[in-house]
Design brief:
The chain is of the alpha+beta class and 231 residues long. The protein has one domain. A four-stranded antiparallel β-sheet has the order 2-1-3-4, covered by helices on one side. The protein is globular and about 55 Å long.
Length: 231
């Protein structure tokens, strides 16, 4: 497919079960262009457990864009427990990642892509992270990538004549909105999933979202010595 960025996830379980997902994103906009459900279930409707900070209305947007794109993942993992061991292989154009981990951890990376790329205005600012997707990222890696992404956004703002936020004060507001979406969306998943793999994968993401703005300043101070050649 032209103008398409593809990230391929494969989950292999010790009992022989396996699941595969191909994440298809528009190269320019990083918007999800994958398959949509033909007959979406009730839990995907916008008004069902609608996020408290959602700018959409059911009249114009009948379905939650994240829920619609998450449907196939939720359906295929609704009978799985979060603690199940799984071998996860992630294939991108540049390289292959592989990790033996819990399903909760392995699903978090995939769900994170869907949350950001589905057209939710509260998640849009994290889209650049998807272009340089790093599966199974640690908190330190996530903080570094987030700060780098945010500062690049400030570079573009500065180039357009807007005063940049070099103190990172906007990170807290950005992740506050993200955290609110995560919390509200968890209520949807509680109805959709019979077991806890999907829900706990989202909880794992939410924990990272809570920690990033809190940890940023401390982590930057810890790695300051790595940049000594600049000052």
């Amino acid at each position: 497919m032209e103008s398409c960025l593809e990230i391929h996830y494969r989950y292999d379980f010790s009992d022989g079960r396996g699941e595969e997902f191909a994440v298809l994103l528009d190269t320019d906009t990083l918007t999800w262009i994958g398959e949509k459900p033909f007959n979406p279930p009730h839990w995907t409707k916008l008004e069902h457990e609608q996020c408290t900070n959602c700018p959409f209305t059911p009249e114009k947007t009948p379905y939650c864009p994240i829920a619609i794109n998450m449907f196939h993942i939720v359906e295929r993992f609704k009978e799985f427990f979060s603690y199940e061991d799984v071998d996860v292989t992630v294939t991108t154009e540049e390289r292959i990642y592989r990790k033996q981990t819990s399903l909760q951890q392995g699903l978090s990376s995939l769900i994170g892509i869907i949350m950001v790329s589905s057209g939710c205005p509260r998640m849009e600012k994290l889209k650049p992270m998807v272009r340089f997707h790093l599966p199974f990222a640690s908190l330190e890696e996530t903080v570094y990538r987030t700060v780098a992404m945010y500062l690049v956004s400030q570079y573009y703002l500065n180039k357009s004549g807007v005063s940049p936020d070099l103190e990172l004060t906007g990170l807290e507001e950005l992740y506050g909105a993200v955290g609110e979406v995560n919390t509200c969306f968890a209520n949807r998943l509680r109805e959709a999933a019979k077991k806890d793999a999907n829900l706990n994968a989202l909880v794992n993401l939410h924990c990272f979202a809570e920690m990033v703005p809190l940890s940023a300043e401390e982590m930057l101070e810890q790695i300051k010595g790595h940049f000594s050649a600049f000052f």
